[in-house]
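Can anyone check this?
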Amino acid sequence: MAARKTVDLVAARAAVVAVADWARSGEAPEPSRAELAAAVRMSARTLAQIAPGSSVEVRVPPFVAVQCIEGPRHTRGTPPNVVECDARTWLRMIIGELGFDDAVRGGAVEASGSRAGEVGSWMPLFSV
C-alpha cells in the first residue's frame, strides 16, 4: 500500500479560507468547483493526517472519501463507521461554524456506526 501524501497545512488552510465566507453564509458568491474541491479535499486529508487510522470513513461526495481514526481496520465492503455530508456542511464543521452533533441531529450529516461520532472531537480543523 502506498504511503499517504502529506498535506501542506498552510495550503490547506488557505484553500479553506478562500471559501469560508460562502460556507458561513451561503450569501457570498459561490466558489468555483476547483476552489470548492481543493478546500474539501485538503481539509478531509488533513483530518486523515492528524487522526490517522482506518476505522471511520469520511465521505464528502463528489470530492473525497478518507479513512481516519485509529481502531479496527476496514478493508472490504461497506465500512461499519461512516460520516457523510455535502461540501458546505463539511466546510461549516471544519471552521467551527456548525457543531458535528448539531449537524447530525439536524440531518445535515449522516453518521453510522459506533465510532462515527469520534470525528466530531477533531472539529474544528481550521480557525478562520
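Reply from J.R.: I decoded it. The first strand starts at residue 56 and ends at 60.
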